[in-house]
Amino acid sequence: MAEQLQQLILDTLDAQLTLPDTRALKIPGQSSPAFSHDAQITILGALNSLLSREATYETHEVSSHVLTPEGVQIVREGSHEARVWAALPERGSAPLGAQDLKRAVGDDAAKVGQGRAFKSGWIAKEGNGFVKAASNITDTTQIELCEVESSGTLAAGEKALAELRKRKLIIQRKGQWFTVHKGANFSTSIAKPETDLTVDMLTSGSWKKSTFKKYNFDADGIPTSGGALHPILKVREEIRSIFLEMGFEEMPTGTFVESGFWCFDALFVPQLHPARELQDTFYLSDPSTSLPPPSDYYERVARVHEHGGYGSIGYRTPWSHEESHKLLLRTHTTASSAAMLYKLAAKCRGEDIDGDLSAKSQPGPGNPSGDGFRPAKLFSIDRVFRNETMDATHLAEFHQVEGVVADQNLTLADLIGFMRTFFRKMGMKNLRFKPAYNPYTEPSLEIFAWHPLLEKWVEIGNSGMFRPEMLAPMGFPPDVRVHGWGIGLERPTMIRYGVNNIRTLVGHKTSIENVENSPAVMF
Ligand code: PHE
Q: What is the reported pTM?
């Protein structure tokens, strides 16, 4: 087609010397002259291929009109009023009721068409229905729109165009057309310019007579392919930088496999808690038991579960070593937080374990009491596993974002204030807190955020002040409070990027193309 069009332009130039108005051209394969915007764009492409050899051109700006989808429909099926008229019986026959009219022409056409048909005197009311009032009509709207479609304008003039614009049947569009002249190297045969200088051309000397295609420095480059961060990783990086800018240290979270002790017991989760059951937690079969935890600490944890202590009465149920030693896939990253807090308390216990955390715990301005404690702000973002039935919003593994803050005399107000700051940085300004229950925190709060697009409160996280039954066996002094919270990573990512099935985001159904084109990777 492109070559045929070029040939047509050259033949026309050959016959007439100039082509005064490209809107008069009939593009090969099309029935009407090239009045439309798209047709002129096609012609422009052909002209540029001939430019500075066979042809030159001048550009003229025009404003023309194109049909809206409603306008297109009217060209095809007639105006609403004409369709209403056509659907009605002749005067004297039984009138057609309003409901039947709607059924015949559709709700929209019935509504708009009825009024207009009345005004033009095409239809009349009779009894409970309508009949034709005119035996013949001229559908001016359709005729005018056909004219606009083929020429971009109307012989009837600007007033008639304005009326069609007002009725949103056409819109104005800036367009171009061209006047074409013969170029310096005019010929009716299209020279196929060379695109490359080859060895053959050089040895044969044919390059001297060849014409070469000009470089087009305005052409779009070929899209480059390269790595793209998965949306979940992108959001993970954003959250990580919020934590870092708030002075948090990242916790090591490489331990996907944990023991019942660190995942539950250390957190004062009762050994008979339903979360520990097989349908909620994945247990390992080989190996199935863990190495023993630090023995003194293990003893203290077992004691507080079975008999209480530190002001608590405990659960008063027999302690099971077996339950504590079971290996499992961690169900929350709070298992890692517990291990880190245990390390943080080392100096308070008078130990000097490997952690660089305890190394800084000298008495000094940040730690006036000299009890070995130093305040800490820790976070992690990593995978957890739950034995869930999978569906559009649940998988058996997902990411948790978790943070803990340890300091002397922290209060619930510190936790709430802290979360307001943190979530504001994540773009969530409107928060609500609801009392909740966790075995390891008291009080506990669920966090809800107002979602402006979904127009509802969505639960985004869970939080609380860790219980003394958890902190005291670790060795923290009684005035040290630790608060913590956990939020999901997939859910905010899904909401943010309009993903409604988690399986398109995670797992084998993820398409690389989606990842590359996802708005999340573009900033
Ligand atoms: N572990 C909790 C969860 O899985 C989150 C949490 C962490 C709650 C720390 C309180 C304190 O939802």
A: 0.59
Residue nearest to atom 10 of ligand 1 (CA): 463
Tell how far the Cα of 404 is from the centroid of ligand 1, in angstroms.
10
Query: Between the CA of residue 439 and those of 264, 308, 461, 467, what are the distances in Å?
Result: 9, 14, 16, 8
CA of 503 to the centre of ligand 1 (A): 24
Tens-digit pLDDT profile for residues 90-139: 988 889 998 999 999 988 889 889 999 999 999 999 888 999 999 899 99
Q: How far apart are CA 368 and CA 375, in angstroms?
A: 11
> What is d(CA 171, CA 163) in angstroms, rounded to the nearest whole number?
11
Position in ligand 1 atom list of the atom nearest CA 444: 10
Which is the closest atom of ligand 1 to the Cα of 332? 4
Gap between the Cα atoms of 68 and 168, Å rounded: 7
The candidate with the shortest Cα–Cα distance to 2, out of 51, 44, 37, is: 44
- Specify the pairing of strand 376-385 against strand 249-250: parallel
Direct distance between the N- and C-terminal alpha carbons of the chain, in angstroms, rounded to an integer: 40
Nearest by Cα to 474 from 401, 372, 400, 403: 372
Rounded to the nearest 10 degrees, what angle do helices 107-119 and 80-87 cross at? 90
Q: Are 368 and 393 in contact (CB under 8 A)?
A: no
